[in-house]
Write a structure and sequence with these properties.
Layout: E1 5-6, E2 20-24, H1 28-39, E3 43-48, H2 55-60, E4 65-67, H3 68-73, E5 77-80, H4 87-98, E6 104-107, H5 111-114, E7 125-131, H6 135-143, E8 150-156, H7 162-172, H8 175-178, E9 180-182, H9 185-200, H10 202-217, H11 222-231, H12 233-251, H13 254-267, H14 270-284, H15 287-297, H16 301-311, H17 314-323
Parallel strand pairs: 2-3, 2-5, 3-4, 5-6, 6-7, 8-9
Antiparallel strand pairs: 1-9, 7-8
The structure holds NADPH dihydro-nicotinamide-adenine-dinucleotide phosphate, the ligand CC[C@](O)(C(C)=O)C(=O)O and magnesium ion (2 copies).
C-alpha cells in the first residue's frame, strides 16, 4: 500500500482526556460523531444556532446542547459538521471572533479550506477526520463495536500534535477500529468531489435515467424499466461492495456476465473518460468551486430548476408507486 493507514493501537486517546469537544451541527455526521465521542467517554457538547429546533432532540439523546457562541468560547476542538455551504458564514460570525488561541478546528470534508472560503488563524490546528460513509452507518457500526474507515489530514499544525489529535478523534468516533488513511485536504476534496459528480451521484443517476428512458421510449412498460434499471442496482452494488466485480460476477448468470463485459464498455466509451477528465479539471482549477459558491450567492436558481426537473421524471413517479409494494423498504 502506498498510503499510511492507522489503527486503534496507533492512536493516543489520552490526548482528548482533558479536551472539550464542540460539535457544530446535529445532522447526518454531527449526530453520529457527537454520540460516538460521548460513548467513548469524551467531553462533548453540541453547538446549535439560536432558536434551533434540534435542542430537544440533542437532549433526548443524552447530550448537552449549547448555544453556538458559548459552545465555541469553551471548546478545545471545534468540529464543523454543518453543510459545507453554511460553514464560511458560521466561521466569520461565530468562530473567528470566539475561538481560543490553542483550539483546533476539525472538518469532515475539505472544500472550504481547500478553496479558501475559510481562512483560519495561524495559531489554530486545522485537521480533518472524514468518515467514508453516511452518519447513520458511522453510528450503527460504532454501536456494533465496529467502525467506518476514515480519512485524516492536517492543514495547519500549530500545536505540533495536530496529526495525533486527528487520530485520537478518529478513535473516538470508532473510525480507527476499521482504519484511518492519511491524506491531504487537497486530495480528499478533489477526489470526494470527483467521485460524487462523475460516478456515485451524478454518473449513476445519469446512467440509470438513460437506461430507463431507452426502454420506455422503445415501448416497454415503465414498471419493467424501473425494476431493470433502478431497483436491481442495489443488488449489484451490494455484491461489488462486499467482494468487488469478482463476487458480483460470481452471482450473476453467465449470460449477464457476457453482456456485462462486452456491452458495458460501449456504454462508457473512451469519450466518457474524456468528459470525466474535464470534470476533474474543473474541480482541480477551482471552476466548480467558484460556480457552486456563486450559485449559492444567487439563491440557487440552477440547483432548484434542475432538481425540480428530476423530481418530475417518470422514473421517480413510477418508483414511488412501486416502492409502495415493498413495505419492507421503509422510509
Ligand atoms: N452527509 C454525509 O454522509 C457526509 C458528510 N460529510 C461532510 O460532513 C459535513 C457535515 O455534513 P452533513 O452531516 O451532511 O450536514 P447536515 O446538512 O446534515 O447538517 C445539518 C446540521 O447543520 C445545522 N446547520 C445548518 N445550517 C446552519 C447554519 N447556518 N448555522 C448553524 N447551524 C446550521 C443544522 O442545524 P439545525 O439542527 O438547527 O437545523 C443541522 O443540525 C460536511 O462538511 C460534509 O461534506 C462527509 C462525509 C459524509
Ligand atoms: C457521495 C456523497 C458524499 O461525498 C458522501 C456521503 O460521501 C457527500 O458529500 O455527501
Ligand atoms: Mg464523500
Ligand atoms: Mg462529498
Amino acid at each position: 500500500m502506498s498510503v499510511n493507514i492507522y489503527y486503534e493501537n496507533d492512536t493516543n486517546p489520552k490526548l482528548l482526556a482533558d479536551k472539550r469537544i464542540c460539535v457544530l451541527g446535529y445532522g447526518s455526521q454531527g449526530n453520529a460523531h457527537s454520540r460516538n465521542l460521548a460513548d467513548s467517554g469524551l467531553n462533548v457538547v453540541v453547538g446549535l444556532r439560536e432558536g434551533s429546533k434540534t435542542f430537544d432532540k440533542v437532549k433526548s439523546q443524552g447530550l448537552e446542547p449549547v448555544e453556538i457562541t458559548a459552545a465555541i468560547k469553551s471548546a478545545d476542538i471545534i468540529c464543523f459538521l454543518l453543510p459545507d455551504t453554511a460553514q464560511p458564514a458560521v466561521y466569520k460570525q461565530y468562530v473567528e471572533p470566539n475561538i481560543k488561541p490553542g483550539a483546533a478546528m476539525l472538518f469532515a470534508h475539505g472544500f472550504n479550506l481547500h478553496y479558501g472560503q475559510i481562512i483560519p488563524k495561524p495559531e489554530n490546528d486545522v485537521i480533518m477526520v472524514a468518515p467514508k460513509g453516511p452518519g447513520k452507518l458511522v453510528r450503527d457500526l460504532y454501536e456494533q463495536g465496529q467502525g467506518v474507515p476514515c480519512l485524516c489530514a492536517v492543514a495547519q499544525d500549530a500545536s505540533g500534535q495536530a496529526k495525533d489529535l486527528a487520530l485520537a478523534y478518529a478513535w473516538g468516533i470508532g473510525g480507527a477500529r476499521a482504519g484511518v488513511i492519511e491524506t491531504t485536504f487537497e486530495e480528499e476534496t478533489e477526489t470526494d468531489l470527483f467521485g460524487e459528480q462523475a460516478v456515485l451521484c451524478g454518473g449513476l443517476s445519469a446512467l440509470m435515467k438513460a437506461g430507463f428512458e431507452t426502454l420506455v421510449e422503445a415501448g416497454y412498460a415503465p414498471e419493467m424499466a424501473y425494476f431493470e434499471c433502478i431497483h436491481e442496482t442495489k443488488l449489484i452494488i451490494d455484491l461489488i461492495y462486499q467482494g468487488g466485480l469478482k463476487k458480483m460476477r460470481h452471482f450473476i448468470s453467465e449470460t449477464a456476465k457476457y453482456g456485462d463485459i462486452t456491452r458495458g464498455p460501449r456504454v462508457v466509451p473512451p469519450e466518457a473518460k474524456q468528459e470525466m477528465r474535464r470534470i476533474l479539471d474543473e474541480i482541480q482549477d477551482g471552476r466548480f468551486a467558484r460556480e457552486w459558491v456563486l450559485e449559492n450567492q444567487a439563491n440557487l436558481p440552477v440547483y432548484h430548476a434542475l432538481l425540480r426537473k428530476d423530481e418530475k421524471h417518470q422514473m421517480e413517479q413510477v418508483g414511488a408507486q412501486l416502492r409502495g409494494m415493498m413495505k419492507w423498504l421503509g422510509e
